[in-house]
Design brief:
Strands 2-1-5-4-3 form a five-stranded antiparallel beta sheet. The protein has a five-stranded mixed beta sheet with strand order 7-9-10-12-11, with helices on one face. The protein has a two-stranded antiparallel ribbon with strand order 6-8. By secondary structure, it is α+β, with helices and mostly antiparallel strands. The chain folds into three domains: about 5-120, Beta-Lactamase (2-Layer Sandwich); about 125-195; about 200-345, Heat Shock Protein 90, CATH 3.30.565.10. The protein has eleven helices and twelve strands.
Length: about 350
Amino acid sequence: MSQGADDAGEWQCLLEDLPVMYVHTRKEDGQAVLDTCNERFVETLGYDREALLGRPLADVYTPESAAAMDGCDSLAAPDDETVTRRRKLVCADGTVVHTLVRAVPRTDADDAIVGARILFVDITMREQRRRQATVLNRLLRHNLRNDMTVVLSHARLLADAMDESERDSAQKVREIAERWDRLVEKVQRIRQVLSPEQGWRPADLATVLERVEADLNQRYPAARVHVLRPSEGVATIRPEVELALTELCSNAIRHAEAEDPEVVVTVGVPPDEPWVKLTVTDDGPPIPESELLALRDDETTPLVHGTGLGLWMVRLAVERVGGHVAVTENDENGTAVTIRYPCRD
């Protein structure tokens, strides 16, 4: 894309009908001016082509995006690193289109920079879904969870005040409220996986495993969680995998039949393989077949009543970093779940 300006016609023909917006800009009086654009850019914004060409690129940006314009938009100087930016475009009818922007310099026959070639990818629907998910998450976290906290509190008071024959009803209410509380917590973690926080970076595996072990033993004092950690600096782990590991350990503890369940996490970092293996072994009952479907099927059918939602989140988190999850039964009692993910920064 960084060829000379005399190739602009060939590039325009090539990209005219692509499902992305594409423009050429030229530098004029210190501004990036629209020199040419493909039909998708014209159709998306709703202007006449003649009304667009010759206008500063900033004119079709929102004020916020126009103020943030930098080399990615105008390319006043070459940049060895291709950068992606978020920009909002304003259509002729006033609606806003969210885009991701990638650009490279546009040069003439003497390799002098005369403008930029810019691709705009429309991510408006993705942004709308993200905002909808955020709103739903807030509703779940604040409204439903707050209500469940109140229900749990009253269920405990009722159980203490009732006689033996009535106590079962209060206990049933308490169990349902606790189940919904856990469901809201899982939805929150799924949202974290689907929309990782900015700044999520790999961390030292041994350090993270030490923190996971300490947190789990504090949350479940009756359980025994042992993590066989590797030496520091041997491998890294991403936050998505940490969430998946914590979910597996928590599930093993909550579904255990023993009053003092034991969960062991073993780590394998083969020196000749670019993989890390984390195996969570418990001494509880096997995972029901209905929940295992979450690891084998892309459909959400087994999740209708929340069954398998935790394993689905584990799978989702691990697959996002290029790994996979496998479940095997122990030789004795219990289950072993292995997370295998690529060891790379």
